[in-house]
Amino acid sequence: MELLMGIYDAPEAQAQPLFRVEPLKSHIAVFGTSMSGKTTFVKTLLLRLHEDRSQEQEEIYIIDFGGSLGLFEKLPNVCAYFDNSSEENIKRVFQEVEKRVKSNADSLGGRSYPEVLREKKAACPPHLTFIIENVSGFLADDRYETYRENLIRLCRDGLSKGLTVVVTGGDTAGMGRLLSYFGQKIGFSLSADQYSEVFGCRVNPPMRLPGRGVANIGSRNYEFQCFLPHEGREEDALRSYLNPDLSSRNRKRMTAFPKVLDMTELRREHPGAGSEEDRVVVGLDYYDHTQVVWDHSRSRCVGIYGKRGFGKTNLLKLMLAHLRRRYPRHRFVYLDDGRLQLRRIMTEPFPADRKAAEKMRDQERARLKQNGYICFPSGEIYMTDVERFWEFLTVNGYVGTSGTHGGYQVGQEETGGGMKPLAGADGSRTVFIVDNKSFYPRGFVPDYHRDPTPPLERLVSGADEAENLLILADIRPMEREHNETLHRMLGVAFLLDNIGEFVADRGSKSVFGEMDAKELKSLYAKCELGDGYCYQIEEDELKKLKFLKAQG
Prior knowledge:
alpha/beta, elongated, eleven-stranded mixed sheet, 552 residues
């Protein structure tokens, strides 16, 4: 594969031969000052890769730290295009390129890519091109320090497996031994010292004209002129490459998430999303954009961990909105703490007016102090006292042996003093939402000496039998014995925090505590707002996801 890139001056032959690069034989490094021609070179290279027909397939991955290649993102062979705004997207590109290199290696069966291409062109795997625009900015960014070794490994092993690495930069700062892996070097409008750093010897600087530079051809360095990638306006020139027939070739394109993932964005990728009765769609997998769900028909106990302000309330709203919409007969029972955090996600929230909201809070605190619970007109039952909550569970048959499992007996309404069924044989169930750290220890259970089974275990056992649901919101560190009980009961856990830091610091006693914090830090980038993790405990499956924003 030879790509025509310009013409060069060959004084020994008194000629101006065509200048071509051979990506199958060498990686390409391009250095130059601003507006000197290095980005033009990459654009020309991208279009030549689409014009060349010596390969049936070409996969191109671009990290654009210069912000100059945006219009080329939709070229049919571009499988990934990301800027430097999200570390996770950069990690995704590296992981995908490394995965594709391994796949190529398996297909080649120990032989080199050029060799197999010559002998068995039809059976040859795709050629891969990995472009880092402004590698100087990439190497100088502390977030990507750990990727340096990945890049060295790709440069060292890539050519034999069908990978060509292309980098551009203002100078060679930070390149170090990386530069030695690039057989094709090009410089535009550099100083004499910078040319010497790039080519390893003294070079006569060329005329200072856009697109005029120096390139090594064979064992010698020549002054050359880079061709423009196209004529006329860039948008017009690219249009011929963006026709549906060409674009349909690329089914591996990686896409970035919008800043906010709402239902409109979700259904753009997954038409009909959110219609599953027993599955709450909570977001999209960060790597393959498949839907991540909570299947409450299989996992009736779910736990939520995370730091304040990272989206736990949004996740609760998302879950409850689905359950209320799909199961209007279900009853919702809340155990809150003194902060009244769960009141914000109930059907009847505090009013928007600040004075009115404060007045309602005071009134509800007084009712809670007097009665121990509030039964709202919507049927939601709200309490903050753990002993009152346990009494409610016992009287209504959710735990122990008294009453009927599932709460099919009664709960007392404040108004009228009569009794009204909380759930019944009409298919309705009870959803418990708990955000009170005093719930987990066993000390508050009145009949502990008669039945030492931990309260959580009693409640979950009853929930499984009666098909009720239990959502444990904002789980915090607790004693080891309580953690072990919790881990046995949970079916799925969500974390809204940076998982490596969480496990290393305060998460060692959580359901994530057995994971390797160092490995997690290397596997996943830091979370942005709206990011988090879903851990399917029984399957031991961890996924990073972008959470769906709850409506309203």
